[in-house]
Amino acid sequence: MLKGPIARGTFRTSAVLSLRLFVQAGTLLLVARLLGPSDYGAFAGVSSLAVILGTLSTFGLHLVLLGEMSRDPARRAHVLARAIPATLACGTLLLAVFLLVCLGALQEARMPLQVLLAIGITEILLQPLFNLPASELLAHGRAARSQMVALFPLMLRLVAVTGVFLLTPAKPLAVYGFAYIAASLTALAIVSFVMPEPWPAPRVWRWPTRAEWREAAGYAALNVTALSPAELDKTLAAKLLPLPVTGVYAAGQRVIGAATLPVVAMLLSALPRLFREGHDGHGRTRRLLHWIFAATIGYSLALSCALWLCTPIFAWLFGHRYAGIDHMLHWLVPSIPGMAVRTAAGSALMALGKPWMRVGFEIAGLAALAVASVLLTGHFGAIGMPLALACSEWTMATAGVLMLFTSTRGIGSNAACH
Question: H helices then E strands: how many in the chain?
Fold first, then answer.
């Protein structure tokens, strides 16, 4: 059963993720009300692109760190010595790509250059560095502390946007852009100082070898495909829909994304065990997967019903400028179970050493999202985006579950033979 350390870890991590939900909800509401639907739609589209590119900044080395330290904590310094310089180098290159895409293909957003720089530096250079200490703590089985490290810059970002909201500046987007990067810089400095072990000094940094790049390549691919389905839709919406409509859609999508946090808590608590047991052929791994998916489906269905009933509350919270968000949320709710199951299947495949399977079904989902968003927004208008998101999430969920249980079909019988 899903009990013992994993259940306790899930409870502790759920408490931290409840705090994360509060922080994300507060930030979302303040930023959305501060900027208005049009500017928020542009901001959401551009920042989502930065997040997607930022997933490649570590080139999967933070997941290599998680896997190595889950099996042998002494591998920490060896992996970090190549992970830090690789993250800085890849992030700088990706920042240039981000600016070129925004200034060329996303001119509809009409975002000032200084704001683009603030978003790009934050999401492509600074935020990926938080993945390293978070992975260290997760490898030690400290999922709640790991989430606190990841949450810290978001907490400072909430403080920053609260200050900007209270000041009501004439150009709120420009001022928030400055606060956005300042919050992450401050958080990174504090986290680096308080971690139990310091990062390796620059003099021992080294460039990864060709074999190490190949080892990380699968994790890099799955990292970008894992987060892209939750972000690419907002970038596509900024291109395909009027910016005020994009703002309403992006706000609603952020709300349903938060609904899967209990599933994330459970998966984070189970991940180190799956890393340890996934290659040993134990039948209990398959039983663990059964309980994970049973809990995932139960969570997501209950949360879907609750969110459907609470849509009038969100309409009130966002205010009259976001008219229609309750209608948008009703169309977004069907994506929640698919999103939760997709997350569970992808995390399990990664931990069981099947990263390319995860990459495969998530690429299929991204392709479905891109094609469906163009076709459905052209035919149905604004509701085409939530329909495209549901199509993408359920495509990935179905393919992911089939891949996972096909690849683990022999685990129980193999264990019985030993």
Answer: 17, 0
Per the structure block, which two tokens stand in for 80? Answer: 């970090």
Neighbours of 79 (CB within 10 A): 24
Q: What is the domain partition of the chain in residue ranges?
A: 5-417
Q: Phi first, then psi: give them for residue 3, nearest 5 degrees.
A: -145, -170
CA–CA distance, 224 with 140 (Å, rounded to integer) = 24
- For residue 334, report the phi and psi dihedrals to the nearest 5 degrees: -60, -15
* pLDDT, mean of each 10-residue run, the chain (418 residues): 50 63 82 88 88 89 79 78 90 93 75 87 89 78 71 86 86 85 87 77 86 80 78 89 90 83 69 60 67 83 89 88 90 91 84 78 91 93 92 93 78 46
pTM of the model: 0.79
- Separation of first and last alpha carbons in the chain: 22
Q: How far apart are CA 398 and CA 98, in angstroms?
A: 32
Q: Are 342 and 396 in contact (CB under 8 A)?
A: yes
Q: How far is CA 291 from the centre of its chain?
A: 23
395 by DSSP, 3-state: which?
Answer: helix
